[in-house]
């Protein structure tokens, strides 16, 4: 603490020897090698502690005649800039800080919040915003965001469910994206020499940083979301299906219908669709409760799926012994 | 003997404590301790340590000084520690990303406050605010806003709700408790008077709702669910089904909680719990990479239903 105060108060760079003469706790006999070594160890440890806390320690010399490096802390670099939050803004920050379920992020958020309060911000712990997002992150989130910030390349093992063995991937990570509640990393895949995105939940084991900081530059103004979202744009529903369903049945299909025309024995549903296979699987799931009248592409898809379903569930005598 | 970790923690706390007290002259010690999340004893120990800290010279005018008035404390000399340390990269990331999440949450109130707060935090965080994290949550903004307005009214609601497990649309009266988003979906958590329990209603499955004249009054036993481990956490009372899953169907294990996966070369044997066997029948149709292995009655139901459905298409 005294070291911080001392280095904040000085404009000149102070050498280790000068600091030892001023700051209590560093008293020692510089002529005694053992005593001097103990001081140096303690001083190194304290400097490491300051860096760990994020205290910006500057190193330089007071004049061109000095051989020894000196230290100081620039007030401008040290202090949190003035921040004036209105009560509603402070409430939002307080809620944001409670969002994380992940222990590391939760601790970082609350120590960040503690600094804001030290700057005079009053946070109402009871505030709510109507909808609470529940946010979980995958273990790879921390290492990947750090690597993206430092612009360091990473390596990790990636498992796609359709493939048996995880494969080693090398990536220059541009950033991490939360898309529809799932986390992805977007970047330049060094092996494929192309832009790729990876789902964080499929990363197996640790993420290793492989290069030095500042090793690459993400493309200017890259829209990370668009890389992830590209594959799942809006679906055009141009197909028009007519499906008959039994009275009081197939509630899930009725919800899809643009129009329900009640009938004597069955009701008629008019459904708009994009992907016939998708709608066919929904209809097939209702078994004899639903029947496609048209168009033929949908009718054929349903028949095909039902036939496969029968074939796969035909009793096979010796296959499963129990 | 303190470990380096706790010593850094304590230094961080002390550096924060001076500006915190400086901004709140005359704050009761107990209130400050509660606010800072430390015990009163701990806070008093920290204050005693501050007393021997100060500027070189360490005379009466150099040391940090404070005045006590009963249980209240006021900093009278701050020795240059008048501002908190700036946000470190992890703190900036955690706050900025959380605010972006909030701003993106469909149906959230006070979006304007969130965006203003985000701008101010970003400006205070400087270079660090450029967090390499982008957020896009799904949205049926319009419907969520309508449901939220109804919840904000504090009235009980009448819901028309689709339950896929039983494939039925039901009418019920609920006492709203809160709204939340988990992963891809937004939910209304409410006390359901019909089932006499707390239920999560997925917003996209609320087909219609009306506001009643009576107020929302969840009973004392209405406790919110802990959804940090996911919304659907099947209990042991639910039936188990076993599936043989080809490569193209392995995604099931990423989307649904499964009990067991046996990886037998290319094919996986997946065991999962389902709320209802009829739901399982509907769910598994049209998934060419999935075959039901058990229980036997489910296999039989699937086959019988598919046969009966095919008969409808047989040429007359």
From TrEMBL, chain A:
Domain WYL: 140-203
Lineage, broadest ranks: Bacteria, Bacillati, Actinomycetota, Actinomycetes, Micromonosporales
InterPro entries membership: CBASS_pafABC_assoc_protein (IPR051534), WCX_dom (IPR057727), WYL_dom (IPR026881)
Protein name: WYL domain-containing protein
A Pfam cross-reference name: WCX
Highest taxon above the source species: Bacteria
PANTHER family on file: PROTEIN PAFB, PTHR34580
UniProt domain WCX: residue ranges: 240-309
TrEMBL record, chain B:
InterPro entries: CBASS_pafABC_assoc_protein, PafC-like, PafC_HTH, WCX_dom, WYL_dom
Matches recorded under Pfam families: HTH_PafC (PF19187), WCX (PF25583), WYL (PF13280)
Stated name of the protein: Protein pafC
Top-rank taxon: Bacteria
Domain PafC HTH: 9-122
WYL domain residues: 143-209
Domain WCX: 240-310
């Amino acid at each position: 603490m005294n070291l911080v105060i001392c280095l904040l108060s000085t404009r000149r760079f102070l050498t280790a020897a000068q600091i030892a003469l001023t700051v209590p706790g560093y008293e020692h006999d510089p002529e005694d090698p053992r005593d001097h070594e103990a001081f140096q160890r303690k001083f190194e440890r304290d400097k490491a502690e300051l860096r760990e806390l994020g205290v910006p320690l500057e190193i330089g010399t007071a004049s061109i005649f000095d051989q020894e490096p000196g230290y100081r802390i620039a007030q401008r670099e040290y202090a949190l800039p003035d921040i004036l939050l209105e009560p509603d803004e402070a409430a939002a920050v307080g809620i944001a800080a409670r969002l994380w379920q992940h222990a590391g992020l939760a601790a970082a958020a609350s120590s960040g919040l503690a600094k804001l309060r030290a700057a005079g911000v009053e946070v109402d712990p009871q505030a709510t915003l109507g909808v609470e997002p529940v946010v979980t992150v995958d273990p790879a989130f921390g290492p990947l965001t750090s690597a993206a910030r430092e612009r360091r390349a990473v390596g990790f093992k990636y498992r796609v469910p359709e493939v048996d063995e995880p494969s080693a991937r090398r990536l220059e990570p541009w950033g991490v994206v939360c898309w529809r509640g799932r986390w992805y990393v977007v970047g330049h895949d060094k092996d494929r020499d192309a832009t790729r995105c990876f789902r964080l939940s499929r990363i197996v084991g640790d993420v290793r940083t492989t290069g030095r900081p500042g090793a690459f530059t993400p493309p200017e103004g890259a829209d990370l979301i668009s890389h992830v979202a590209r594959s799942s744009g809006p679906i055009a529903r141009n197909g028009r299906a007519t499906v008959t369903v039994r009275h009081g049945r197939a509630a899930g299909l009725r919800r899809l219908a643009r129009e329900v025309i009640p009938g004597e024995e069955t009701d008629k549903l008019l459904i708009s669709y994009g992907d016939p296979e998708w709608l066919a699987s929904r209809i097939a799931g209702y078994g004899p409760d639903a029947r496609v009248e048209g168009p033929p592409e949908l009718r054929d898809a349903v028949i095909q799926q039902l036939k496969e379903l029968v074939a796969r569930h035909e009793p096979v005598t010796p296959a499963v012994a129990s | 003997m303190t470990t380096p970790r706790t010593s850094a923690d304590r230094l961080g706390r002390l550096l924060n404590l001076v500006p915190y007290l400086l901004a709140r002259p005359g704050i009761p010690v107990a209130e400050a301790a509660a606010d800072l999340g430390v015990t009163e004893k701990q806070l008093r120990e920290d204050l005693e340590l501050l007393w021997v800290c100060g500027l070189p010279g360490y005379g009466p005018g150099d040391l940090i000084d404070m005045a006590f008035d009963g249980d209240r404390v006021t900093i009278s000399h701050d020795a240059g520690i008048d501002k908190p340390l700036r946000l470190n990269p992890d703190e900036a990331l955690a706050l900025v990303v959380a605010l972006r999440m909030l701003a993106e949450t469909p149906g959230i109130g006070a979006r304007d406050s969130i965006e203003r707060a985000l701008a101010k935090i970003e400006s205070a965080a400087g270079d660090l605010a450029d967090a390499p994290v982008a957020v896009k949550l799904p949205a049926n903004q319009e419907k969520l806003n309508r449901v939220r307005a109804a919840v904000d009214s504090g009235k009980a609601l009448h819901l028309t709700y689709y339950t896929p497990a039983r494939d039925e649309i039901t009418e019920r009266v609920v006492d709203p408790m809160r709204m939340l988003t988990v992963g891809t979906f937004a939910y209304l958590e409410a006390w359901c008077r019909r089932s006499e329990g707390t239920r999560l209603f997925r917003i996209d499955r609320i087909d219609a709702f009306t506001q009643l004249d009576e107020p929302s009054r969840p009973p004392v036993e209405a406790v919110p669910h802990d959804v940090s481990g996911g919304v659907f956490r099947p209990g042991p009372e639910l039936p188990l089904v076993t599936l043989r899953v080809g490569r193209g169907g392995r995604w099931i294990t990423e989307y649904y909680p499964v009990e067991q996966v046996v990886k037998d070369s290319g094919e996986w044997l997946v065991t999962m719990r389902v709320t209802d066997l009829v739901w399982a029948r509907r769910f598994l149709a049209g998934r060419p990479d999935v075959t039901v292995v058990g229980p036997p009655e489910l296999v039989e139901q699937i086959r019988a239903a598919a046969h009966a459905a095919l008969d409808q298409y047989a040429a007359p």
